[in-house]
Amino acid sequence: MNTHRWMSTNFFSFFFTWGIFLPFWTGWLVYSKNVSITDASLIMSMGLVARGLSTLFAFPYLSGRFSNKVVLKGAAVGTLVSVLCYIPSQTFTSLLLVTIFFHFFYPPLMPILDTAASRLVQNKQLEHYGKARQWGSIAFVAAGIILSLFITAYSEDVIYYIFLLGIAVLVFLAFQKAPLILSEKPVKNPAMTSSLMKMFHMKHFWLVLLIVVLLQASHASYYNYGYIYLQDIGAPAYLIGVIINIAVMAEIIFFSTADRGFKRFSIGSLLALAAFGSSLRWILVFAFPSVVVFSFAQILHACSFAMAHYAFMQYLIRYIPQHQIPKVQGLYSALALSWSTAVFTLFGGYLYEIKPGYAFLGMVVSTIPALLLALRYRIVEDK
Known about the structure:
Layout: H1 3-31, H2 37-63, H3 68-84, H4 92-105, H5 109-122, H6 129-153, H7 157-174, H8 205-217, H9 220-232, H10 237-261, H11 267-287, H12 291-297, H13 301-319, H14 325-354, H15 356-361, H16 364-380
Helix pairs in contact: 1-5, 1-6, 1-7, 1-9, 2-4, 2-14, 3-4, 3-5, 3-7, 6-10, 8-13, 8-14, 8-16, 9-14, 10-13, 11-13, 11-16
C-alpha cells in the first residue's frame, strides 16, 4: 500500500481536529456550555493533568504491549465515546469528568501517529517524515479558517459538531488497512526499563528541561483564552481563525528553515532567543490591546514555541542515548506540554477575570526566568 498516503491522511485527519480543539475548545465551553472563564480554566487544567498522566505512563505502557495499530484504534474509539459524552453534560462537575476522560484518549493520538511515522521511516517504508507531517500543518490552518466562517454564519455551537465529525473520520481511518509493520507486536527491550531518574544525571538535562518547561507553560493563556481575547478586542469573527493561524504559519516557516538558518547556533543561544521572543510576545499583547498588534505578535510563535521545541530536539539528538529518547519524550510531553500548562491555565484564568491583558502579561513570570536560565546554560553547556 502507499504508506505516504496513509501517513499523510492520518496526520491531516488528526491535526484538522487539533486545529479546532486547541484554539477554540475553551471558547466553546464558555459560550455554548455557559461556563465561566475561571471554571473553564479549571476544567481544561484538569484535562491537561490527565493528558500528562496518559502520555507519560499509559501510552508508553500500552505501546510496549500492543501493536501501534491496536493502540491507534483504542485511542480513536475512546476519543469518540468521550466526545459524545459532552452532549448530555451541562453541569461543571459533569463537564470536568468528561474532559478528564477525553484527555486520556485524545492527546495521545499525536505521539501514537508520530511513533507510527518513526517506525515507517526507520524501516524505509516512508521516505520523508516532513512531507507527510506537513499535511498536518495544512489541516490545522484549514480547520481554523473553515471554523471561523461557520462560527460567523451560525454560532459557537458549530465548534462541537465539526469537531465530532472530524473525530468520526479519524475513527474510520483507524480501522482501514494500514502498513503491516504497524500491526506487529513490539519486542521487549531490557534497555528500555532503565529508571527515569537516571536521565537527570545526563549533562545539564535538568537545566534544559526546566527552561523548556517554563517556555512551553507560557502558552497557556494563548491556547485557552486567545480566541476569547480576540473577540474582546473586537476582531471580526471571520478573521479570528486566520489570525490564530499566523502563529502556525510562522512555526511551519521556522521548521522548514531551521536546519540551515540556525545550524551554527548553540542550544543555549536558541533557548535564550526563544525566551526573549516569548517575553516580547506577551508584553506586546498586553501593552497594545489591538487586533493589529496581536496579529504581529503571532509571528513570535516561531520563537516562543518552535525555537524552544527545536532546541530541545537538538539537545536530545546530541546528548540522549537512543534507548532513552522515548522516555525523555514522555517526560517532556507531561511536564512541558501538559502539567506546567495546566498550572498556568489556572493562573491565566484568574488574571483574565481581573483584566484580559493581565493573562498574557502574567506569562512573563515563566519566560523571564527561562531567559536568565538560558543565558546561564550558554555559559556552561560546553563544559
